[in-house]
Design a protein that fits this description.
The protein is an alpha/beta fold. It folds into two domains: 67 residues, Immunoglobulin-like; 244 residues, Collagenase (Catalytic Domain) (3-Layer(aba) Sandwich), CATH 3.40.390. It contains nine helices and 21 strands. The strands form seven sheets. A five-stranded mixed sheet has the order 11-8-15-19-18. Strands 3-2-5-6 form a four-stranded antiparallel sheet, with no helix packed on it. α2 packs parallel to α4. It starts with a helix and ends with a helix. The structure holds zinc ion (ZN).
């Protein structure tokens, strides 16, 4: 009975809010928004569902008008004070300075551990690490930066580690390369220095196999980890020829780097910044909710919409969620790590 009362109460509030909103809306100034190139329109950081050119009712006061361009993948923005109907045109002069995100990419020459066949090691040559690093940079150029509409600019530092690293064995089936193994070798991995660390190592080498039920892993709550940095490991199955395998992924399932990185900022970090993010998926992870929001494998549209704040909300019609260009311009893990 208590629940029923609560429901009725909410409905009456909702109706009142609706009535007063529609009266107010009728008298709002109409703003015509256009840009040098066709694009999606954002109002105060939220995707509006409109594309340029569009006439929109905007409440009087100060607003951030943004346009994410379809072809050149730029975000243009203007702070405007609306008091009457107006036309706002965005040009390339309205492109903000991108926010710098710093990645540390670590190529691991050799991992050791207790496989099912006993102790063994799995190694990458310098050339194989080069191939992995090129794959990562390809993803930065083709996914990370354009999906943020170039509001992020990634500065990537690469280090190769030749000291063999002992894998952590979780239960009987998992092998992981833990952040503690990295910080023991690289004391510079500490709060405020990097937004994310990406570790690349070889899954199997001859008879030595550290195969288990994952390809990439990410730590999902950087601010509550000692390093206060996003942490991703990619356990790569290089097969006979690493370049063939990388090309297969590029053509069929190209999102591994961006997928794992999005776990580091899309599960807790941006939520804690106050950004409205999609709901969790069935396994408790936000990034795995793609199907719930009607996206399909290999999920590239999901990553793009997740990053640009254009995931259609399931319940509230015509509203959208996800990170979005204004949030990318405002926050980095690195800066947050030094504030807390
Ligand atoms: Zn995942």
């Amino acid at each position: 009975m208590k629940n029923l009362l609560l429901v009725l109460f909410l409905i009456s509030i909702g109706l009142q809010a609706c009535d007063s909103k529609s009266e107010k809306e009728a008298s709002l100034p109409i703003v015509r928004i256009d840009a040098v190139e066709k694009g999606f329109i954002y109002l105060d950081g939220q995707y509006t569902g409109y594309s340029t050119p569009a006439d929109m009712k905007v409440s009087p006061g100060e607003h951030v008008i943004g346009v994410a361009t379809n072809e050149s993948k730029q975000y243009l923005r203007k702070v405007v004070t609306v008091d009457q109907s107006a036309e706002i045109n965005l040009s390339l002069n309205d492109k903000p300075e991108p926010k710098v995100w710093k990645a540390l990419w670590l190529g691991i020459h050799e991992v050791t551990g207790s496989s099912v066949n006993g102790r063994c090691q799995s190694s990458f040559s310098k050339e194989e690490l080069d191939a992995g690093f090129n794959f990562f940079q390809w993803s930065i150029r083709n996914q990370f930066e354009p999906f943020s509409y170039n509001t992020t600019k990634w500065e990537v530092e690469r280090k190769d580690i030749s000291t063999p690293i002992e894998l952590h064995k979780a239960g009987n089936t998992w092998f992981t390369l833990e952040p503690e193994s990295i910080t023991a070798l690289l004391p510079e991995v500490q709060p405020g220095n990097y937004d994310a660390v990406f570790v690349f190592w070889r899954e199997s080498d001859g008879d030595c196999s550290f195969k288990s039920s994952y390809f990439g892993l990410a730590w999902t709550d950087p601010m509550n980890d000692p390093i206060k940095t996003g942490y991703v490991t990619i356990k790569f199955d290089a097969g006979d020829d690493i370049n063939n395998n990388i090309n297969w992924y590029k053509e069929n399932d190209p999102g591994v780097w961006v997928h794992e990185w999005l776990h580091t900022v899309g599960e807790n970090y941006f939520q804690d910044c106050g950004v409205q993010m999609p709901e969790k998926g069935g396994d408790g992870l936000v990034l795995h909710a793609a199907e719930k929001y009607n996206y399909t494998y290999p999920w590239m549209d999901w990553y793009a919409d997740f990053m640009s704040g254009r995931v259609k909300n399931l319940v509230a019609p015509n509203t959208y969620c996800g990170i979005g260009p204004e949030a990318f311009l405002k926050y980095t893990v690195r800066e947050s790590a030094l504030k807390k």
